[in-house]
Amino acid sequence: MRAREHVATGLKNFRTLGIPDGEAQALLCQADLLRLGDATNRQDATEAGFQALAIFDRLGERYNAARAEHYVALTLGAQGRMAEAVQAWERSLIDARATGNAILEAAVLMNLGVASEALGRHADGLRFNEQSSALNEKLGDEGEAARAQANAGAILVAYGPDPDEGFRRVQSALAVFKRLGDRAFEVFGLRMAGAYQLQTGLIDDAERSFDRALAVARERGLQDDTLSVTVDMARTAIAKGDYAAAARLVDAVVDEPRSREQTQAAILKGQALSLLGAGAEARAAFERAARGVEGDKGSRPALLVAEGEALFEAADLTGARERFHQARAIAASPLVDAEAIEAEAYSAYLDGRNGARGMAAARLRAALAAAERLRRISLAATCRVLLARLALEAGDSGGALTAVTMPADVEARLQPEVAAEVHLIRADAAGRAGGKQADAARQAIRQILDRLRATVPAERLDAFLARPRIRRLVSSVDGQATAQARR
Question: C-alpha angle 156/159/160, rounded to 5°?
């Protein structure tokens, strides 16, 4: 509050003395302070930024006008007006380059990267962050270069085209953050390393990364980061098959209105409850997430896919198809994300059940290739299972077995239910051919079911066992061929 008072006094004095340059500088200070406040403050911050910009434009001070555009963009970003913020930063970038302000240019490039990513423009986000990192290295600012490098690495991990290279960049940046004591970005780097480990099935490594991130966040009192890591840990619990733990973890985040992860937490809670067989509770969580999506458009594909999965298992194929098609329609980036791949895979399978199996199989193979490029091994295995189901429906047991053939080290890292579906395909296909492979597949399913049951609270066990997928898996242990599509 005292800082605001000092700025207001300075602004009044500059206006009284008729010093426009000083007035504009004070307005930028005011904008920087107000953008951290409530909604009214953030709106006032934008107005202050535009007033400063108008003064610098009138004075012909292009160097300072570039700075003012940067502040305007920051205030617009604080209001969630990202598309307008990008336009302001693009104008700032032009003027920064024209006036030789390399430090501002590097900062603007990084902000353009973050804003582009928020808008789903992943290729642009990658390009801007790479340019910022290179320029900061040239300027000798190792910390800022590492931050931009970590941002670029995170995009590569999540969207490709080279997640392995993204992981290497994140690890390199992490070493810098630790050496410089940049704890906030250390947490970010650990989270991104954990995300890579999670999608590649390295669950133990992912848990260690998230545990370290949580410890650093708590040590430094980084509340927002603590909540974000908690969501990461819940996502990991789902990947392990511990759905009850995932639901418990996200409760605190779902109930925290100030958290930027609130919508993601509600989606994960819906997923966890659905996987526990608590359909009504899951629908309530998804409905809550749907309300949150209004202010968090980037989470909408994840919500649609999560709802689609639940409806698919419940045999509401019309509802599932609608959700998956909506998720596909949102995807606009040339760097494909996991939600778009999953939505395409299920859409292709559902279309194939209604005919045109050849086209559906081609689409599924394309989705499989995309999932493998992103190193998302359980998503890739899901594509394989859907391909195999199409083959079984056509009476092609050999084709089904081929579809679920994968390296042993990859199969060992699959999420439990996905691994069980792979074995279910083998049990059904091999059983038809009279092979002994069916017995081994059923034994593997039995072991997976035992591990899953062990994590389910007693009061939820009946509902869990009543889930359609779990019923099919249990039936398969008794030797019944059940890998056909849901009717």
Answer: 55
Residue with tokens 């409760």: 251
- What are the φ/ψ torsions at residue 435 (nearest 5 degrees)? -85, 160
Give the pLDDT of residue 306.
96
* Domain C-terminal end among 349, 375, 401: 375
393 and 370 in one domain?
Answer: no
Question: What confidence score (pLDDT) does residue 483 get?
Answer: 42
Three-state SS for 403?
helix
Sign for the pseudo-dihedral over CA of 466, 468, 473, 476: positive
Helix (H) or strand (E) holding 220: none
467: left (phi over 0), alpha (psi -120 to 50) or beta: beta
For the chain, what is the radius of gyration of the CA atoms?
26
Q: Can you tell me the distance from the alpha carbon of 11 to that of 7, in angstroms, rounded to the nearest whole number?
A: 6
- Residues 28, 83: one domain? yes
- Helix, strand, coil share (%) of the chain residues, nearest 5: 80, 0, 20
pLDDT at 486: 37
Per-residue pLDDT at 296: 65
Q: Are 424 and 472 in contact (CB under 8 A)?
A: yes
pTM of the model: 0.90
Cβ-contact 426, 437 below 8 angstroms:
yes
Q: What is the CATH number of the domain that holds 19?
A: 1.25.40
Q: How far apart are CA 340 and CA 327, in angstroms?
A: 6
Q: What confidence score (pLDDT) does residue 481 get?
A: 45
Q: Given 69, 100, 131, which residue is the final one in a domain? A: 100
Give the C-alpha separation, 225 to 207, whole Å.
Answer: 16
Mean pLDDT over the full length of the chain: 91
Q: pLDDT tens, 178-218? A: 999 999 999 999 999 999 999 999 999 999 999 999 999 99
- Cβ neighbours of 367 (radius 10 Å): 27
pLDDT digits (tens, 9 = 90+) for 31-57: 889 888 888 988 999 999 999 999 999
